[in-house]
Design goal:
The complex is a heterodimer of chains A (242) and B (405).
Chain A: E1 2-12, E2 21-32, E3 37-41, H1 48-55, E4 63-68, E5 71-72, H2 78-88, E6 89-92, H3 104-114, H4 119-132, H5 149-161, E7 167-171, H6 179-195, E8 199-204, H7 207-210, E9 215-220, E10 223-229, H8 238-241
Parallel strand pairs in A: 3-8, 3-9, 6-7, 7-8
Antiparallel strand pairs in A: 1-2, 1-4, 4-5, 9-10
Chain B: H1 3-16, H2 18-54, E1 60-65, E2 67-69, E3 73-75, H3 88-94, E4 99-113, E5 119-127, H4 131-134, E6 139-142, H5 147-151, E7 156-159, H6 161-168, E8 177-180, E9 183-191, E10 205-209, H7 210-218, E11 225-230, H8 236-251, E12 260-264, H9 265-308, H10 310-318, H11 323-360, H12 368-394, H13 398-403
Helix pairs in contact in B: 1-11, 2-9, 2-11, 2-12, 9-11, 9-12, 11-12
């Protein structure tokens, strides 16, 4: 359950460039229920990345309140934010951000290393997550820099799933992939959405990608311009997703 | 994050760029290696001096004329000061409790000639039979001065090995005549070699009875040294004080400003140890400079690594790593580098020390304490020079780190 109340974020530029204030987010309020598949969309510079950072507990708002699972996290310290990220949030990035020399299994179990989970349990949970992300078992011991882009992104999805988070944040997950591979990744998200009750937030500038979600929030110049259910959700054909 | 995970992360990170890790480590290897080698040379010198001083005789007090103040040399050594030790003092010392043997000496350099015409200028020591025991000297062949020869002004001499070789070559000198300062003497024995002790070489001496020396060769009635061996090591200080008191009384001088000095082996050893310690510290600190340079190399590499892995740091933070975790990870990498470097450095230093004693003939000694110290220092260098890069990594903002190109 995500609840944003009058969130705004102001960046101050340095004194050399005039010390001007930029308002990246202006008074944003909305809430997302558990288990929703939401796309946040908007052109570049609209503030969607800033919004993702706040929702993902990487940053705190300048003003307003943010509740994640009824917990106010708008004024937590860096260490407390790290705890929240570790326990509740899984990230999928456009650039995958895998450790290139580590094996697929090692990459996926990395969040559990910081959670202090024992090695045997780490491995079994990483394998579960890889299966959930439809990652083929024969590549589990490969190093991640030996994989294709689509495979890497599935490793990243598995890594986001491994700590069993209540929220998955995907920042342009198809941005570095060709259309067909992108479709497969989107299908993976849809499968996670229909199969399990966790919230998925997809941040994208492409309306085509956003149409795969169940709800679309559009942002422009730091303000919400539309927020609606997506009744005719694009379904990736099972022929592609296999 | 457990220690085992930390170890694995460190291993993965360092083995990712083996050439760079190895070269950076080489700085520490050379630094630690040279410190170990230098300290081993210094400690070897110390060991050599110690054994050669202890070889001069155990529990030895040496009484010399003139007053020595520590650090100022001989003061109040006015005219006649060198003649204050007399034969009567020998009895005074013999009667002291705790004294094992007393060996008086008078020495002077004379020209010594063999029948074949070889000649040498060596120290002639006039002494008593006790000298052998007090100075811890062994005979190679023949005999040393006897009581009877002492009483009868015997014209006999025991030769040090160097003198024996100079005068007679490989021949056995026992029984042969020699001339000391134009007086005829007969060789009665040859001593075992002892090796040089500083400026004095005990092998380049000959020994004659004290009475013969004083009355025939030198024509004096005083002594140049009295060596006293004390029965028990624990009684050394007591014997030194007692001897000072009794001799002052005998000489009728103020015990605070006597006309003689008593030097114990501990004093000599202490003075020489101070010299070799200074020498060791001097060598080690020069070698230490290379250790600092190695440490700077570590810091340089760690800073480069942090910059290169900015995105990785951002990702680790995004998935829940705390600043402390990141800090630990980079500190562990730096410490692992210096610790491994320290290990190989100890091995290298050891090899250098071996090579030095093998080829340069200098005695070296690698002590356990210097190895422990080397490890301590290398770990400390890792922490000191890894601290700043690790802090820089830990303080990165995750959002900016993830965006870093």
């Amino acid at each position: 359950m995500i609840e944003l109340k009058n969130i705004s974020k102001i960046y101050k530029s340095g004194p050399l460039v005039g010390g001007a204030e930029t308002e990246a987010l202006k008074n944003i309020s909305f809430s997302i229920k558990d288990g929703e598949f939401v796309a946040i969309t908007g052109p570049s510079g609209s503030g969607k990345s800033t919004l993702m950072h706040i929702i993902g507990c990487l940053d705190t708002p300048s003003d307003g309140k943010y509740f994640l699972d009824q917990k106010d996290i708008s004024e937590l310290s860096d260490n407390e934010l790290a705890d929240i990220r570790r326990e509740k949030i899984g990230f999928v990035f456009q650039a995958f951000n895998l450790l290139p020399r580590a094996t697929v299994l090692r990459n996926v179990s990395l969040p559990l290393v910081y959670a202090g989970v024992k090695k045997a349990e780490r491995e079994s949970r990483a394998k579960e997550a890889l299966l959930a992300a439809a990652f083929p078992e024969s590549f589990w011991q490969h190093r991640s820099n030996q994989l294709s882009g689509g495979m890497m992104q599935r490793v990243a999805i598995a890594r986001a799933l491994v700590n069993n988070p209540s929220l998955i944040l995907a920042d342009e997950p198809t941005g570095n992939l060709d259309t067909k591979t992108g479709e497969i990744i989107l299908a993976t998200f849809q499968k996670l959405y229909s199969g399990e009750g966790r919230t998925i937030i997809l941040i994208t500038h492409e309306s085509y990608v956003a149409e795969h979600a169940g709800r679309i929030i559009s942002i422009k110049d730091g303000e919400v311009v539309s927020d609606s259910e997506n009744s005719n959700r694009r379904i990736v054909s099972s022929a592609i997703s296999q | 994050m457990t220690a085992k995970d930390l170890f694995q992360e460190t291993y993965t990170a360092l083995s990712a760029n083996k050439a760079r890790s190895g070269l950076t480590m080489l700085g520490i290897v050379i630094g630690i290696g040279s410190v170990i080698a230098m300290v081993s040379i210094g400690q070897g010198a110390q060991g050599t001096i110690q054994t050669s001083i202890e070889g001069l005789g155990s529990n030895l007090l040496t009484i010399i004329p003139g007053f020595i103040q520590p650090g100022r040399g001989i003061v109040s050594s006015g005219r006649g000061a060198a003649q204050t030790l007399k034969n009567e003092d020998i009895e005074v010392l013999r009667e002291m409790p705790g004294v094992a043997e007393v060996a008086p000496e008078f020495n002077r350099r004379f020209q010594i000639t063999s029948p074949s015409g070889n000649n040498t200028n060596s120290t002639v020591i006039g002494t008593t039979p006790e000298y052998l025991v007090v100075r811890n000297i062994a005979l190679r062949s023949g005999s040393f001065i006897t009581e009877a020869q002492l009483r009868n002004l015997g014209r006999v001499a025991a030769l040090g090995p160097t003198v024996a070789k100079d005068l007679f070559g490989e021949e056995d000198p026992v029984g042969k005549p020699i001339r000391v300062n134009k007086a005829n003497f007969r060789v009665i024995g040859v001593l075992e070699t002892k090796g040089s002790a500083g400026f004095f070489n005990p092998d380049d001496t000959i020994f004659v009875p004290l009475s013969t020396m004083q009355k025939i060769l030198a024509g004096v009635d005083y002594l140049s040294t009295i060596a006293v061996s004390v029965r028990n090591k624990d009684e050394m200080q007591q014997a030194q004080d007692e001897a000072a008191y009794r001799l002052s009384l005998k000489h009728r001088v103020d015990p605070e400003a006597p006309d003689f000095s008593i030097v114990s082996q501990a004093d000599i050893l202490g003075a020489l140890t101070e010299v070799t310690d200074t020498f060791t510290i001097f060598l080690a600190s020069i070698a230490g400079i290379s250790l600092v340079v190695g440490g700077i190399g570590i810091m340089n590499m760690m800073l480069t690594t942090v910059t290169e892995r900015t995105r990785e740091i951002g990702l680790r933070k995004a998935i829940g790593a705390k600043s402390r975790d990141i800090n630990m990870q980079f500190l562990a990498e730096a410490v692992a580098l210096t610790f491994l470097g320290g290990f190989f450095g100890v091995v290298l230093g050891w090899l250098i020390a071996l090579a030095v004693s093998q080829f340069a003939g200098i005695v070296t000694q690698v002590s356990f304490s210097s190895i422990v110290l080397a490890f301590g220092v290398s770990a400390a260098i890792g922490i000191i020079f890894g601290y700043y890069p690790a802090r820089r990594a830990a303080s990165l903002n995750p959002i900016e780190a993830l965006r870093y190109e």
